[in-house]
What does this fold into?
Amino acid sequence: MKSRFIIIILFIAIASFITGGYLAIKSLRNVDQLNFMLYNGPWRVNPSMDLKNTKQRALIAKVGLFALRESEVIYYTAIMDSDGDPLDSDYDYILEGSVPNARYWSYTLYGKDNFMIPNPNKIYGYNDTSISYTPKDSLNPELQNISQPTYTMHISKERTGENWIPSGENNTMALTLRLYNASPEVYNNLTTIPLPSIKRVK
Amino acid sequence: MRKALIIILAAMTFGSAGYHTTMYFLPNYIYAKFKTRGADTFGNLPNQTRILLAPDENSRTVVKPNPDFAYVSTFYDVSEGPIHISGSLPDSIYWSVAFYQPNTINYYVKNDMQYGSPNLNIVLGEKNPQVENSEFINAQSSEGFMLIRVLITDKSLSNLDRIENLLKTITIEKVKTE
It folds into this structure.
């Protein structure tokens, strides 16, 4: 009788251990429920890579292996548009933004597997030297008062104007904005610095 | 009643242990998997550099690569003594050198502005062998990963060739200790 109880306990211990492990991995799938993330419109940012926090370390290893510390790079990621719908290659998107205050910045579009989306043009994103800026007089009125240069980016299957990033086929997507050596103003205002809205247009 | 309590306690204790153990060791597991995958594609001999210029859709070893960068990487091993990393880096808008432990912690990063020179001259080890004119970095683990990122603004073939040739000057040698 006693040995039967021990077997039951052993079984429960193993099952619970495996379930705990499964729940740990599952909890990393829903990044939006992680309490250390901050939000700026559709963009989320991890304000401090506290790698002693095991959950943060696990998440970074899973979705951004070999990421740099926040003192070197700030990573903003958007997986939703400005209306809260997942970025999906079945739709076209338009982003209008101004130049962020950083030494170097870039946008890169990734597929659901976190790798670049295959396309014959080999266009995966834009940075401060490759992007085309918008002339002031053709700007959206909301951006006309901004003193920094501004740009418009398009995410779609078919080429759509300047600064086009191909979205490929059957993809849920993630857009990453990297700010290298950002100014203190950025660090102090991670949730309020002007970042582009992501509007679904088709 | 007592048995039921023991069963509930066991479930909670081992469930929590499973959760925290997985969370703690997941980075090591991902790193080990990456190292194995890396070995399949480019070999994982320690202290040998590998260059990747402007990754594209076919670069699938590490998630979320930056297509604007050239990368120099190595699996370092200082268990048998410190190593000397030297070479020249391009006159890029940005470059940085970073070291990671197998649990993926980035314990060192320094960029071109902080170096102030395009010449790399680093000694990495667990003990400082006092090599003159070199920066000593205390390795937080005897094995790990080094990643040098170099921003490429001009992706023309001639410029990529130029950058590759410069990056090939980066070498790793064991420091001779008495």
